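Consider the following assembly input.
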Amino acid sequence: MTGVISVVVDGVTFGMLLFLFSIGLSITLGLMRFINLAHGAFAMFGGYVSVTLLNGLGMPFLVTLPVAFLATGIVGAILERSVIRHVYRMPELQQVLFSIGLAFAAGAIATIIFGPQQQPILLPRWLTEQMLIFDIQISGYRIFLIVAGFSAAAGLIALFNYTMFGAKIRAAVDNRRTAEGMGIDVNRLFSLTFALGAACAGFGGALAVGFLGLDPTFPLKYLVLVLMVVAIGGPGSIGGSFIAAIFLGVVDALFKYFVPEVGGFVIYALLVVMMIFFPKGIARRTA
Amino acid sequence: MTAALEVSNLTVRFGHFTAVDGVSLHLAPGTRHALIGPNGAGKTSLVHAITGNVPVAGGTVHVDGTVVTRMTQAARVRMGLARTFQINQLFRGLTVLDNVRLTIFEREQKTRVFWRSARADRAVDTEARELLAFVHLEKYSDHVVHALPYGIQRLLEIAIALATKPRVLVLDEPAAGVPAMQSESIFERIRDLPRDLTLLFVEHDMKLVFRFAERISVLVGGRVLTEGTPKEISADERVREVYLGRRSGHVVA
Amino acid sequence: MKETFRIGLGIPLLAAAIAAYFMFPGYLGLMAHIFILAIFALSYDLLQGHAGIVSLGHAVFFGIGAYTAAIVGKNGLTDPLLVLLIALLVSGAVAAGLTRIVVVGNDLTRLLVTLGIGYLFYEAANKANWLTGGADGMPDFEVGPLLGIFSFDFVGRVAFFYTLAALVIVYLFMLRVTTSPFGIALRGIRENARRMHAIGAPVNRHLAITYTMSGAVAGVAGALLAQTSRFASLDMLGFERSAEVMMMATLGGTGSIPGVVMGAATFGYLKDVLSTLSPKYWHLGIGIVLMLSVFVASNGIIGCIAALKRLTGVKS
């Protein structure tokens, strides 16, 4: 039984990370209708920032996290301002091609700078210690990740539901014209939102290095899962993405544990099955 | 006599909002029936529900006695119920002739053929040209649609609907977006449509409605306020009230 | 909308191919590879350029064709044409089986489903290494002589004409399909699917047939690659190959048959030259080219040619 619990914990942890990876894509899709298949590149970027600071400059791990968050957000904002905002208006095919190109380029740049191998990361001792919760050994890092994930989710939900910024976003998602007519600077809103989504992914990526590893194939490796979170949770819905991410994380972990020969394959079969029965996605209204 | 189009107690809801509330229409074969009402009265929702673009929450739709309420739009077209759209829905990258030929190919179920050239089908080609002649568009046959003026496209919109050989044709504001000069000619084409074709048209321009309609249904707030001949409707106080403050000068005395 | 070049441009392309045979006798293998890529790209463009459906997992059928050829070859069936036919039927059957989930749903779910199907088959092939050889792939299956007479030689002469003949047949097939009533219906779907429903068109059925055809032809391409290289491997199923075929079709000019062929030829040549230099710079290069392509030259090579024609006043 303890085996199952620890697998579920792993699944929840993975789900938290998936949530952080996906939330940017969910909002971007819901708000700007932009299909960004390269969103995983932001997560990868955050991971590399954290690793470089930690290994190269000896910065404490915890400090690298907000730096990764900010750095990725800035990169996201720059990209959005310069290039991406012109892609919003394009038909779907162009968006897909553009973002695939971006994903390839990002992975290539990572390979050129860092090489194709996994990045080693030395986590601080207090995080790698095992802790005993309800008689189960769980590594401190998993607990840290879960707490971080919950806090991020709570923070985002608070942001979207209780702040002016969040209200403006919800207004713009609902009816862009009217929002503009009310004086909301929608372009700036898009930039900020895109940057926020990228920053979350970067934060998630930095957190993920110690749990999932990091190499240049990162963006495409988790693409399907991230898209599934968005499709199942409903584009634009934070709560939906959260639940979908945890669900997928746990299902993936359970199947890998109980039926390892089939393992990762199951998640794709699940996707196909879900799409047969819910071809329009399990739509949820925006939080 | 079986109605060509029978709408019974039709209700359409979008979430909590009831756009169409228990509307009934009875169109005798060959009639020219107009649907009028202020903006937001539910006319377009009603048309969408009749033609199968939106699902209904209650009520039925019959075409020539056959119930079509649960059928897809494509199935209704094959049953003889076609429509035009308020905003042109054309195949903009194709030529005018191809727009009509495609429709005929679909009607004849010839689109399963992938081994023969489309141009080789003389019968379809001839019929397409005849239809274009009816709407006076033959000279635009080889023009690509997106390069043509809106009024011309509007006529093509009608030609495509006719190409499906409907028994009941629903026209959603056929003159919408077209300058007054051209809307007359559009309606003249409509007037010249064969008498065995039943017409239901939504229109805002009262002059046109009173000239071309044989019966009028007035829709207000999702419900039928009244129905009658143009003379009865124009004399109806309630109808004038509904249009008060709008371009009421256009209501023919 | 771009003009439909008819067989017109096909003739110079064919002439160029035959000329290349004589001019570059050392590169026959590369040319056969390019013909195969062109067949694959044509199969994909039937979906993207003509029906307007974007699929992120088209390599599945390419891989199924390749593995079918390999597995069948390993089990004694060596006549290449028969194997080709079997590969066509198998990949067509799989495509037909998948149409239900690919054809319904909106654009986001379709992207997701096709992506997921791609990974699904990749993982399945990876795990089923008793059948597919897993990550090692399947080498050394026998391919008999073509028509019983022409053995595949190391120089690649037979492979060259074999794949070129297949490309010509597929090219003519595509021309016929796209100028048939079915072809016009596909364009109608691409132009205005809403209107198609409103004229009584069975849109889903049209798309299902297109997807099946497209999968079958992709399977032929895959089988050809397996036969001419005596190898079937997982990357033939993978996402990168799906992305590549999308790039070839788009860079050549989606919706244009000669354009797609030119796109495949350009892509195949560049990949051969550049990726041996350094795969990571190759990825960077195509990444950048793709990103640029949505801003400039969005109609691909064929679009550039059309623009040039207009500039120089040549009538098409």
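Chain C has 13 helices and two strands. Ask yourself how this observation constrains the way the partners meet.
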